[in-house]
Design brief:
Layout lengths: L18 H6 L2 H15 L5 H35 L21
């Protein structure tokens, strides 16, 4: 990426990742984010924009993952309570197994 409009890029000598960014995002991950989203946006995505995108995805995952885990736990509970599923014998679906495949 080139230095454009004073924005920092990975190739600019003075660029350093913000402390929290370098802890979580590798230069390769940032470059890949820039490559993919620059193509989608039809313009060059700056390093700062790529880091913001990665932070936003991480924040979204922090919200969605617990909800998905709760949904899976609820489905297992419902599935294990149905007659013939093994719940009456104590042989319900073990943790870590996909209840849709049973």
């Amino acid at each position: 990426m080139r230095k454009k409009n004073g924005e920092r890029t990975m190739e600019s000598v003075e660029y350093q990742l913000p402390n929290d960014a370098s802890q979580y995002y590798s230069p390769d991950m940032i470059a890949e984010t820039q490559r993919v989203w620059s193509k989608q946006y039809g313009r060059e995505i700056s390093t700062d924009e790529a880091i913001e995108m990665l932070r936003n995805v991480k924040a979204l995952a922090r919200v969605l993952l617990p909800l998905a885990e709760a949904e899976i736990a609820e489905r297992k509970k419902v599935q294990n309570s149905k007659p013939g599923c093994g719940a009456e014998t104590g042989k319900g679906i073990p943790d870590g197994e996909d209840f849709n495949k049973v």
